[in-house]
Sequence to fold (211 residues):
Amino acid sequence: MQKTILIHGYAAGVHASIFRKPFGEHSGFIALDEEVKSGITKSFRWSKNISLSIAQCANPLQYFQLYRDEELLTESPITQSTHSEFLDCSNATTIICHSLGCRLMIGSMNAHGIPESITKIIFLQGDVSTSASITNLTIRDRIINGSLVIENYFCPWDQSLLASAMLHRTNRIGLMGWDETGVKNIFYPLLKPMNLHTSPLRDREFLRSLI
Fold:
């Protein structure tokens, strides 16, 4: 039985020539590799799997197109249904989502709800518009009565989310927080590595505290 489900963000399935292989079972949650191998946590894989040549790696349009494709995947009824079925079989108590994975989680739980066993959902650097809302009435009731806790970790200097905000012309919940009923917003200072957006995924002490 998995205690925690991990929902990765953008580009987890990219094989970028000699520069990067697709993420393994941890799906980018590098600091929880041991927990994934032991079965305490498990990843839900939803990304698009692609291989890029050296020339393609140097073309920014490749990454932009992948981002657009994966945005559509998070909104796909098929992806959301598969995600819901995965949760139903997990018996997990906690879900940790990162970046675009937060968008998938919100869409999935609005459409299908979540199992009663889930008592906490954590959003890390969510690439989700601040105008998004939780529309599933059962989930809203659980948030209000305290049987479901939702925590949203944010940081205003996340360069990836700043780019997303400019692209979409809307703020992101991972930048300034989410004004949604019952959601607890928590500031997490992004300090390293160069790609600050993935900083929480490398912080073992922090992630261990969440599971």
